[in-house]
Structure formats: structure tokens, C-alpha cells
UniProtKB/TrEMBL annotation:
<dbReference type="GO" id="GO:0005576">
    <property type="term" value="C:extracellular region"/>
</dbReference>
<dbReference type="InterPro" id="IPR038765">
    <property type="entry name" value="Papain-like_cys_pep_sf"/>
</dbReference>
<keyword id="KW-0378">Hydrolase</keyword>
<feature type="active site">
    <location>
        <position position="239"/>
    </location>
</feature>
<dbReference type="InterPro" id="IPR037155">
    <property type="entry name" value="Staphopain_pro_sf"/>
</dbReference>
<dbReference type="Pfam" id="PF05543">
    <property type="entry name" value="Peptidase_C47"/>
</dbReference>
<dbReference type="GO" id="GO:0006508">
    <property type="term" value="P:proteolysis"/>
</dbReference>
<dbReference type="GO" id="GO:0008234">
    <property type="term" value="F:cysteine-type peptidase activity"/>
</dbReference>
<keyword id="KW-0843">Virulence</keyword>
<keyword id="KW-0645">Protease</keyword>
<feature type="active site">
    <location>
        <position position="331"/>
    </location>
</feature>
<protein>
    <submittedName>
        <fullName>Staphopain AECTAG. Cysteine peptidase. MEROPS family C47</fullName>
        <ecNumber>3.4.22.48</ecNumber>
    </submittedName>
</protein>
<keyword id="KW-0964">Secreted</keyword>
<feature type="active site">
    <location>
        <position position="349"/>
    </location>
</feature>
<comment type="similarity">
    <text>Belongs to the peptidase C47 family.</text>
</comment>
<dbReference type="InterPro" id="IPR008750">
    <property type="entry name" value="Peptidase_C47"/>
</dbReference>
<keyword id="KW-0788">Thiol protease</keyword>
Amino acid sequence: MIAYQRLNKIAVILLLVFLLFISVTTEVKVHAQETQNPGGLYVETQICPENVVKYARENVYRFIIAERAEKGIESNNNLPALGSPFALVNEEENTITYYFPILYNNHIEATFRVYEVNGQLAGIYSEALANELEELSKKTTAEKPAVIAVNNGNVIAITCEGIDVLQKDPYGKNIKEDKLKNFQKISIQSSDNEVINCKTPIQYLSKIDTSEITVNNTLPRFKYLNTTIRETQSSYPWCAAYVTAFIVNFRTGRTDIRAIDVVKFAHPNSNNIYQESVSREQCIAFAKKYGLNPYEPSSNISYSTAKHQIAAEKPVYMGCDEISGDKKGRHALALRGYNEQTGVFSVWNPWYNYYETMPIDTRIYTATNGSRWEWKRSIIDW
């Protein structure tokens, strides 16, 4: 009997020791999970309006499908997640652009930027800021979020470690130090602000509303020209020359034409070639040198004409006017693809080394830093 009681006591002691070990181990594991960096992207931001979130939820799928169609991916497996948005405020241009990260396995692979013009929402899907935001996520926590803003055309992030330039101003302007004081304090000062983890997924609708999309059965369902980006625009005012070289290379099968060739052709006697710009007439003349015969219509082309141009293997020169800010500049893009079933175009902005997808039903293009451009003129039939 005594031996039996001793065995019971030993068993109880062993059980208590085991439970204590489990308790300590569990406590350590929980504590470790709470303190380790979960890989989030924490940003202090203005609260995103509900209608913007609704637009992203209802529309991002068609942009994803368009991208997969271009890449030849037919399966809908392994669709990306739509992250939570932050607001990118550009005070100089008086614009706000809302960025939704696009996540594959919690890694930012693309972004969907949503903007409003004249009461209408639109979105652009591309690689813009994707790598930069992923790197930025390594420097943020819920207690130490980043503030992302535009400073003199530069997209910057301020963290406790300092200032990161996520994307430089396309015209080469430097950061204005006197404006940094507005962002130096990283803490919520207004009820309009919140700290969010941009990698927190938002459920989106995995279907396409085709009620507003007109499909032309005489054209391919989608068409993306096999163009190649060989150079990107520096701070020189050569956007028209970059787009012209891009198109002429594709149409002639050449690989050696560059923007500087277009500028030198237009200004053979210039003493300062890097300050020269190129007119549309000069772009047309340059193309004729290579046996092409493009022209500028008296009025801008319709969406139908644009799609027919792409179907005929002819990119479209898009002449744009700036509609944001006080300085009304001009810029040029190239239209090089469409998808009728998803209602999108594929365009190239010579500022960037990637293509972007924008809706067919808008003529307003918003750059990464929030500057806005209206497609007003075209050169076709290259």
C-alpha cells in the first residue's frame, strides 16, 4: 500500500513537471510569435474611402485575368491576393492615388492604383512600386509604420531608419528638405489617419461584369504586340522620341534605334541636344525615313480604331496633356495591346521599364507619383 502511494506521488509529480514544461514551452512560442516581424507592410495613411475599396474589389480581377492572358496562363489557380490600400498624397499636383498591393505568397509582385477624375474611378495595374514596397516592409512594424508621400515629384517613404526614395521624379527634381518636416513625426495625429498592414488581404470578386464591355467579333479576343523596352526616359524632355523609337523598332524589326537618334534627326544643328524636344510632325518625318507612313488624325481616335490598329500589328502613339498641378506639361505613351473581354488596354510609359494595364473606358492616365494626363492626340498607321 505504501509503495502504491509512493508511485501515485511520483506519477503526480511527473505529471506536474510535464504540464509545467508544456506551459513554459507554449508561453515561449506564443511570445516569439508576438514579437517576431510577421513580414507586414505597415503604413500610416489616410483612411481609404469605401467607394475606392469597392471599385478595387469589383474590378481588380479583370486586370489580373488580362495579365495572365498576355502571359499565356489559362488556369485560374494560384490567384494573387489583393492587399489593403494606402493613400499616396501629391500636394503639388493636388491628387490622391490609392495603392493596393498585389500579393503572391505574401510577397508584393504588383500594385493596383486607383484614382478619381470627374467623379469617375479608374485603376492601373502594373509593377509600379512593387519591389520598393516589398523592401520597405522589412523596415516597418505596427509600432513603427512608414509614411509614404510625394515630395517634389519623388515618391518617398519615411521610417524610423530614415528616408527612402521609392521612385525618383521623372524630371530629375530633388527632394525639398523644407517639406520633409510635414512627415517627420510618424504618429497618428488625425482621426482621418490610421496605421494599416498593407499585406492584410481584402476579398475581391473573381468574376467579370461584361455588361458594359462591347466585344467586336471581327477582332481577336485579345492582342498584345511583342514589343521590347530597350531604354527608359531620363530627365531629358524626349518622351516623344522614346515612343517613336519604340514603335519604329517594332514596325521595322530593328533593335538599334534609340531616342537620341530621333532627337538628332529633328535637330541636326543643335548645340544642346539634351534640352531639345521633338514634335509629332518630326516623329512622323523620322518614321518615313524608315519606310513607314504614319499620320496624325484631325481628332483623337476612338477605342475601336485603337483596337483595330493593334490587331493590325501597329502600336499607337498617345499624346497626353497634363491635367493636374499648375504646370501643364505634355507627355507621350505607347498603346501596345488590348483585351476586349476584360475591357483594358496595355500601355508603355517611357518613364518605366514595364508595361501597365489601364481601362479602355478612361482617357485619363495617372502616373506612379499621382500626376495625371489626358490622352488627347494620336499618331496611327505606323
